[in-house]
Design brief:
The complex is a heterodimer of chains A (about 140) and B (about 525).
Chain A: E1 6-10, H1 19-30, E2 34-37, H2 44-54, E3 58-63, H3 68-81, E4 88-93, H4 97-105, E5 110-112, H5 118-128, H6 133-136
Parallel strand pairs in A: 1-2, 1-3, 3-4, 4-5
Chain B: E1 48-53, H1 58-70, E2 75-79, H2 82-85, H3 109-115, E3 126-129, H4 134-147, E4 157-159, H5 164-170, H6 177-194, E5 198-199, E6 201-204, H7 206-210, H8 215-236, H9 240-243, E7 247-253, H10 257-279, H11 284-287, E8 291-295, H12 307-321, E9 326-328, H13 341-356, H14 371-394, H15 397-402, H16 405-422, H17 451-466, H18 469-484, H19 490-498, H20 503-514
Parallel strand pairs in B: 1-2, 1-9, 2-3, 3-4, 4-5, 6-7, 7-8, 8-9
Classes of the chains: A alpha/beta (about 140), B alpha/beta (about 525).
Chain lengths: ~140, ~525
C-alpha cells in the first residue's frame, strides 16, 4: 500500500472563521490522508516552515477575509526561495474569479470557491498531489 | 427528503392539542414573554432597520451611512476591519492586505470622528461589532459623541463586547478569558454608573450559528454566556436589577422557518424564567430579553446569487415573526465580497417590503398557539435547559470553553451538516440541486482598493507627529497601572483615547499586562 498523502491545512491572516478549514481537515482525514492543522493566525513564514518540518505534499489555505492576494503572493514567493515548488498549494474561501485567475498564474494549483464539494476537493488532491504546482495550473 | 429541522429534530406530520400536555401561554408583554416583550409589538413601533456596514476607510463608510439613513434606515451598525477587531493599527505588519477589507479601519479617535462626521450621535443609535478591544472603541465613541456636544446620560447604542462567543466560535480574541471578562465587567459597571441608556453588551449567538452550530446550541450557549456575564457583574458588586435591563442579545435568523421562530420565543421565556429563578430579578426590564437579529450569512450561495434575496427575505420574516427588536438583512452578493451599494439597497428594501406590505406587523405573535410552533418552542426550551445544566456542572462557561466543550459540539454539528449536504440529504438550491445551466448574470462586486491602507497609514503618521507625545505616554502608563490593580479600566482608557493614543498602543498596554491567548485547536 502506498504512503498516505500528507496535507497541511492552514489559516493565514487575522481571520478567525475556521468552520471551512475544520470541515476540510476532517474530510481529508476521513478520506485517508494525514492532516496537520496549523490553527489560526499563521504568517506565510510560519506556514512554509510547518510545511517543511511536516514534509507535506499539499498546503491547503483557507481565507475568507479578502486578504488572499497579499498572503498567497508572499507564500508562493517563500516556497520558491526555499525550493519547495514540489509542494502543491490549493486555496479555498471567498475568492473572486479575477483573483482566482491571477493566483493560479502565481502557481496555486486550484481555487475552491464557495459551494465546492468535499468530494471534488478530495478527488483533486488524490489526482494531483506530488506534482509541482507550476505544472498543474489549469 | 428527511423530515427534520435543519438542526436534526424529527418533525411529525402534524401536531394536535395532545402534543402540548398542560400547555400554558401568557399574553404578549407579560411574563414569561414567550409572545413578545411588548403588548403591542410592531403595532406600536416597528423594529429598527439596522444594516451592518463598513469598508475601505472611515470616510467612505461615512458616505455609505449617510446614504443608508437617507434611504430610510433607522439605526447604524458599524463593521470594523480585522486589524481593528484584533487591536492592531493600520500600519502594523499584520495589517498587510487586511485594511478596510472586512469593515471600516479605526486606529484612533480621529477615525471615529471621521466615521460619524455629520451624523448626530445624540439622535441616531449606533451598534458596534467589536469584542476584544470593545472598551477602547467604546471610549473613542464616547469621546467623539462628547465632542459633538452629546450628553453621555442620553446617548444610546449597543456594544457587542461578547468575548465568550469569540473563544467558542468567531475566534477574534486577544487576551486570555479571565482578563477579558474583567474588561467586559468594567464596561458593564461603567455603563451602569455613567451611560445608563447604552447596552454595554450584545450577547451573541449569531457567530456560534455561523460556525456551524444547531439552532439549539446557538440558543443554549448564548444564554449560558449571558449567565456568566451576570455572575461576574454580581461578583463585582452590582445588583441584578441595576444592570440586567441593559443586557441585550443578538441571534442568527437561519433558513428553517419554524425552528427559528421557536428559538426566538423560547429564548425570551427561558431568560425571564432563569433570571427570576437564579438571581431573583424583579424589575420586568431585567426579565425582558431584547434582541437584534441578522439573517444567516452562511446560508448565502455563490451559485445563482439572486436566490439569496429570496433566502434572506424568508429568514427576515422568521425574525419578525419571532419578535425581533432590530434586524439586519444580508445582501445577495455576500458570498463574493462586502455588499455593493445596489445589493445593500435591495437588502434594505426587503425589510421595508416585510414591514409595510406583508401585513405581518399588524398582529402580535401571529403564530402563538400553533400546535407545531408551540411544540418546537417547548422542545427548544427543554434542550437548552439540558445544555445549560451540563455547562453548570462543568463549573461554568469558562471552564467549558477551556475543556473545548462548546467548540467540539459545534464542530461536530457543522461536519454532520456538511456531510448531509454532500450526500444530497439536504438540498441547497443552485448548489447540490437545481443547479441548472441558466446563464448567470455577472454581479457587481465591491472592490476595496489597496490605497485604503496607504491612506490610513498616512493619517496615522501625521497623527503621531502632531499629538502631545508626553501625554500619550503618561496615559498609557496609568492604564498599565490600572490593569495591574483592581480599578475600573474605562477611565484610564478614555484618557488615553482623548490623548489620541492609538488602538494598537492601548491594546499593547493591555497585552503587556494581560498576555495573549492561544487556543488548543479542536478538529
Amino acid at each position: 500500500m502506498s504512503q498516505p498523502i500528507r496535507v497541511l491545512v492552514a489559516k493565514p491572516g487575522l481571520d478567525g472563521h475556521d468552520r471551512g478549514a475544520k470541515i476540510i481537515a476532517r474530510a481529508l482525514r476521513d478520506a485517508g490522508m494525514e492532516v496537520i492543522y496549523t490553527g489560526l493566525r499563521q504568517t506565510p513564514e510560519m506556514i512554509v516552515s510547518a510545511a517543511m518540518q511536516e514534509d507535506v505534499q499539499v498546503i491547503g489555505l483557507s481565507i475568507l477575509s479578502g486578504a488572499h492576494n497579499a498572503i498567497v503572493l508572499r507564500l508562493m514567493q517563500l516556497l520558491r526561495e526555499k525550493e519547495m515548488t514540489g509542494v502543491m498549494v490549493i486555496l479555498g474561501g471567498i475568492i473572486p474569479d479575477e483573483d482566482a485567475v491571477q493566483l493560479k498564474q502565481q502557481g496555486v494549483a486550484a481555487v475552491f470557491q464557495p459551494g465546492s464539494s468535499l468530494e471534488e476537493i478530495v478527488h483533486f488532491i488524490r489526482e494531483r498531489a506530488g506534482q509541482p504546482s507550476g505544472q498543474t495550473a489549469t | 427528503m428527511t423530515h427534520t429541522t435543519i438542526s436534526g429534530t424529527p418533525i411529525e406530520p402534524f401536531y394536535t392539542p395532545e402534543s402540548l400536555p398542560g400547555f400554558q401561554l401568557g399574553q404578549p408583554g407579560e411574563f414569561p414573554y414567550t409572545r413578545g416583550i411588548h403588548a403591542g409589538m410592531y403595532r406600536d413601533r416597528l423594529w429598527t432597520v439596522r444594516q451592518f456596514s463598513g469598508f475601505a476607510t472611515p470616510e467612505q463608510t461615512n458616505q455609505r451611512y449617510r446614504y443608508l439613513l437617507a434611504q430610510g434606515q433607522t439605526g447604524l451598525s458599524v463593521a470594523f476591519d480585522l486589524p481593528t477587531l484584533m487591536g492592531y493599527d493600520a500600519d502594523h505588519v499584520l495589517a498587510e492586505g487586511e485594511v478596510g477589507k472586512c469593515g471600516a479601519p479605526v486606529s484612533s479617535l480621529a477615525d471615529v470622528e471621521a466615521l460619524f462626521a455629520g451624523i448626530p450621535l445624540d439622535k441616531v443609535t449606533v451598534s458596534m461589532t467589536i469584542n476584544s478591544p470593545a472598551s477602547i472603541l467604546w471610549a473613542m465613541y464616547l469621546v467623539a459623541a462628547e465632542k459633538q456636544g452629546a450628553d453621555w446620560a442620553k446617548i444610546s447604542g449597543t456594544l457587542q463586547n461578547d468575548i465568550l462567543k469569540e473563544y467558542i466560535a468567531q475566534k477574534e480574541y486577544i487576551f486570555p478569558p479571565r482578563p477579558s471578562m474583567r474588561l467586559v465587567t468594567d464596561t458593564i459597571e461603567f455603563a451602569t454608573r455613567h451611560i445608563p441608556r447604552f447596552n454595554p453588551i450584545s450577547i451573541s449567538g449569531y457567530h456560534i450559528r455561523e460556525a456551524g452550530s444547531t439552532a439549539l446550541q446557538e440558543l443554549a450557549f448564548t444564554l449560558r454566556d449571558g449567565l456568566e456575564y451576570i455572575d461576574w457583574a454580581i461578583e463585582r458588586g452590582l445588583k441584578i436589577d441595576e444592570f440586567a435591563p441593559r443586557l441585550s442579545f443578538f441571534f442568527n435568523s437561519h433558513s428553517d422557518f419554524f425552528e427559528e421562530i421557536a428559538k426566538f420565543r423560547a429564548a425570551r421565556k427561558l431568560w425571564a424564567t432563569i433570571l427570576q429563578e437564579r438571581y431573583g430579578a424583579k424589575d420586568e426590564r431585567s426579565l425582558k430579553l431584547r434582541f437584534h437579529s441578522q439573517t444567516a450569512g452562511c446560508s448565502l450561495t455563490w451559485q445563482q446569487p439572486a436566490n439569496n434575496i429570496v433566502r434572506t427575505a424568508l429568514q427576515a420574516m422568521a425574525a419578525v415573526l419571532g419578535g425581533t427588536q432590530s434586524l439586519h438583512t444580508n445582501s445577495l452578493d455576500e458570498a463574493y465580497a462586502l455588499p455593493s451599494e445596489h445589493a445593500a439597497t435591495i437588502a434594505l428594501r426587503t425589510q421595508q417590503v416585510i414591514a409595510y406590505e406583508s401585513g405581518v406587523a399588524n398582529e402580535v405573535d401571529p403564530l402563538g398557539g400553533s400546535f407545531f410552533v408551540e411544540r418546537l418552542t417547548l422542545d427548544m426550551e427543554e434542550g437548552a435547559r439540558n445544555y445549560i445544566r451540563q455547562i453548570d456542572e462543568m463549573g461554568g462557561m469558562i471552564a467549558a470553553i477551556e475543556r473545548g466543550f462548546p467548540q467540539s459540539e459545534i464542530a461536530a454539528a457543522s461536519y454532520r451538516y456538511q456531510c448531509e449536504v454532500e450526500a444530497g440529504e439536504r438540498v441547497i438550491v443552485g448548489v447540490n440541486g437545481f443547479a441548472g445551466k441558466e446563464a448567470e448574470q455577472p454581479i457587481e462586486i465591491l472592490q476595496i482598493a489597496q490605497t485604503a491602507r496607504e491612506a490610513q497609514c498616512a493619517k496615522l503618521k501625521k497623527l503621531r507627529a502632531e499629538r502631545d507625545g508626553a501625554r500619550v505616554e503618561r496615559s498609557l502608563n496609568s492604564l498599565r497601572r490600572a490593569c495591574d490593580g483592581r480599578e475600573n479600566t474605562m477611565p484610564p482608557i478614555i484618557e488615553a483615547v482623548r490623548a489620541y493614543a492609538t488602538l494598537g498602543e492601548i491594546c499593547d498596554a493591555l497585552r503587556s499586562v494581560f498576555g495573549t491567548y492561544r487556543e488548543q485547536s479542536i478538529l
